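Notes from the 1:1 (GR / supervisor)

We went over the backlog. Supervisor wanted to see one worked example end to end before approving the batch request, so GR pasted a single chain during the call. The sequence is below; no edits were made to it. Supervisor asked that the structure be written out right there so they could see what the output format looks like.
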Amino acid sequence: MEERPRAPLATFFNRDADAIRGFTLAEVLVVILVIGLAAGFAYARLDSDPRRDVEREGRRLAAALEHAAALAQWRNETLGVSAAGPGYRFWRRLPSAEGDRWNAFSDDEILAPRLLPEPLLANTREYAGRSVASDAILPFSPSGRNEPYAIEIASPAWRVFLVADPLNRVAVVDSSSR
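Structure output shown during the call:
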């Protein structure tokens, strides 16, 4: 009896396992995962929406401002905030022989100094209904009764105002585009 020649497909499936070279399913999945993560990060960096960035930083600062006002009451000490240029910082008022002085607040993670992402800027706008200098420190009283104030966070294309009432509630108010 003569042996029939095998078809090419049958020869492929009857090869030794060692003779077949390729990638395992796990290797292929890892490569797809890495490519997907890289594409996601690239998209996130390229798809920066100035309005979303400004609003996110505004909500972050609003939460920190409410926390600082509550902490001033809880610790029975005067705290403050300054917002000028590329960042903001929280302060503690300490009595001294020469009078009260402000020291940078450093023992609370939420109230740590923060630099805003480029090109965002923060500025104090008003306190107790009056304009204030850009380097002013807005105080939070231990009594919990504070003057209304406004802080602006802006990018070249968009801005929001953080507006606080006397009960320390901070609202993030959208502004029209610049």
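Supervisor's comment: The longest strand covers residues 87-94.
Batch request approved.
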